[in-house]
Design brief:
Chain lengths: 221, 322
């Protein structure tokens, strides 16, 4: 575990260097341990290999050591044995998707690029569970792991200026869902009615790091 | 009590200190660009908690006050006037019903703050009044202000004022109101400092803040140096003032509306106490960076917080006479 300052109000805790379900589990466990601890902080942001703790230096002021040194020591002391953390049972979130047609205008491009039939693409994309590694880039946007290598398709050379919210896309080796209408360059293969981001909900983001996601085909491609 | 927007200026939004606690859901913090001017505007308008204010960018709005109001303007001096008469920044000002606030010119900085006693009345969304335009979130209808908008303000107990106009006294906020056009800004090294070729030159060269600079981030350019590289890092968290170096080698300093995470090397971070100073650098103006140690940055931060607390208490006492 390596800890370094990000500016003067955050510490980055790095628990690994590669993207893997094991490193992810450690990040998740660390987040859980932090929530259960007595340490004072503003928020903790999990990413692929890191947990970043945003804090108020005033909570660690006084004495001869700088606040970041104090908090770093406390974290090191508190979380030295992460292996002993019980695994968190993941939630499985099902996302109904209409594949192809107006909902997925790039399905044919993905078919021609991959050499797969449209039905095969749908079967491969919906036939596996994905791991939500982290939420970032946009409110509620999940970084998913587990795309079948046969579905890897480069991004569009001409990104769309408007991608509708709920669009399901493939961008390189990644797949995901656009939570908001934004510009975007991914190949759109379908769309869901589920709202991945709704500020009216108590928890606005539908998904959180650690969830499992399964796409459920609705209707015929 | 309300504020009628006659014309909105370039980009005027309702903001507070930001939306904290939802970054793990990808929700940006947002909030004011210059947090010290924001807090002082509130204190001067006798708001001692984080009330919503107007965050005014470069060209100011024109606003009619429907009733008597205690207001304060801080930040960059955009030459505010009440009914055509110049008023001071950094002072409480009593305005009469139906008077009109306008801003006459560009300032040496970018952002100006208008606080009204009681605060702008908008619903709290996810714990904050701040507007995040890209997601249509918070503030006034999730967007920048437009002509004919009418903003309500929170009720306050209002004694009949003895006089209109500026307070007769002035407080000095030396650390918080000095916006140089071409400042030296202090930076601590970032987690990927070692990954960026020629990294030390960031502390040796002068950088121009380009026109590609907005609430999300400021893109920098130098004639003498860039840091092209082929490193992508595994996406990780960023924060206000994080200096990212994308593959084109031209650094971006992340500002209030930054995303929560990023995939470019983090060469450094502007320190908290210098963020307002940096936020005020206009496009085309220059900035130099100076390295400080994280401990030093935090010492400065704590000192500024002490000073703000002292000012806050002073203005609470002064306010009794307003």
């Amino acid at each position: 575990m390596k800890i370094f300052p990000l500016g003067d109000r955050a510490l980055v805790i790095e628990v690994g260097s590669v993207i893997s379900p094991e490193v992810h589990a450690t990040v998740t466990a660390l987040g859980q341990r932090l929530r259960d601890s007595e340490l004072s902080y503003l928020e903790a942001v999990p990413a692929f290999t890191t947990l970043t703790v945003h804090y108020d230096p005033r909570d660690y002021a006084g004495g001869s050591e700088a606040p970041f040194v104090k908090l770093r020591s406390l974290i090191e002391a508190e979380f030295s044995e992460l292996e002993s953390v019980p695994a968190v049972t993941p939630r499985l979130v099902e996302i109904p998707v209409v594949y192809g047609g107006a909902a997925g205008p790039d399905l044919d491009f993905v078919a021609s690029h991959t050499g797969l039939a449209r039905e095969e693409i749908v079967a491969l994309h919906s036939g596996t569970d994905y791991l939500v590694y982290m939420i970032g880039f946009a409110p509620g946007f999940p970084y998913l792991g587990g795309l079948d290598p046969r579905l890897v398709t480069p991004r569009r050379s001409d990104p769309r200026s408007r991608v509708p919210a709920g669009s399901v896309g493939i961008g390189g080796a990644q797949t995901g869902v656009y939570p908001l209408e934004t510009p975007g360059g991914w190949q759109l293969i379908g769309r869901t009615d589920l709202r991945l981001f709704d500020p009216g909900r108590e928890t606005p983001a539908l998904l959180r790091a650690g969830d499992r996601v399964r796409f459920i085909p609705v209707g015929k491609p | 009590m309300s504020l009628e927007i006659i014309q909105p200026g370039l980009l005027t939004t309702v903001q507070d200190a930001g939306r904290v606690g939802f970054q793990d859901q990808g929700i940006v913090v947002g909030g004011v660009m210059d947090v010290y001017s924001y807090r002082l505007a509130n204190y001067l308008a006798q708001n001692f908690s984080d009330e919503a204010v107007l965050d005014i960018s470069m060209l100011g709005p024109t606003i009619r006050f429907t009733e008597d109001h205690l207001v304060a303007v801080t930040g960059s001096d955009l030459a505010p006037r009440i009914d055509g008469e110049r008023i001071s920044l950094w002072k409480p000002v009593r305005v009469k019903a139906q008077s009109i606030l306008s801003f006459e010119s560009l300032g040496t900085g970018r952002y100006c703050y208008l606080a009204v006693q009681g605060g702008i009345k908008v619903p709290r969304v996810l714990g904050s009044y701040s507007t995040y335009v890209k997601a249509g979130l918070g503030g006034f209808e999730g967007r920048a202000l437009l002509a004919h908008d009418v903003l309500q303000t929170n009720e306050v107990r209002r004694p009949v004022p003895d006089a209109y106009g500026e307070a007769k006294w002035r407080m000095y906020f030396a650390h918080f109101q000095d916006f140089e056009e071409n400042p030296v800004v202090r930076v601590v090294k970032g987690p990927e400092w070692d990954l960026v070729p020629g990294n030390h030159r960031i502390f040796e060269e002068e950088f121009v803040v380009t026109g590609q600079s907005d609430r999300m981030g400021y893109k920098l350019q130098s004639f003498d140096v860039s840091f092209p590289h082929a490193h992508e890092i595994v996406s990780s968290a960023v924060t206000f003032g994080t200096i990212q170096v994308p593959p084109d080698g031209r650094p971006i300093v992340l500002m209030a509306d930054r995303q929560t995470t990023g995939g470019y090397p983090r060469i450094g971070n502007v320190i908290s106490v210098d963020l307002p100073k940096f936020a005020h650098v206009l496009p085309g103006k220059k900035v130099r960076f100076k390295e400080v140690r994280p401990g030093e940055a935090q010492e400065l931060l704590l000192k500024h917080e002490d000073e703000l607390l002292r000012i806050k208490r002073g203005l609470q006492v002064k306010g009794r006479g307003l």
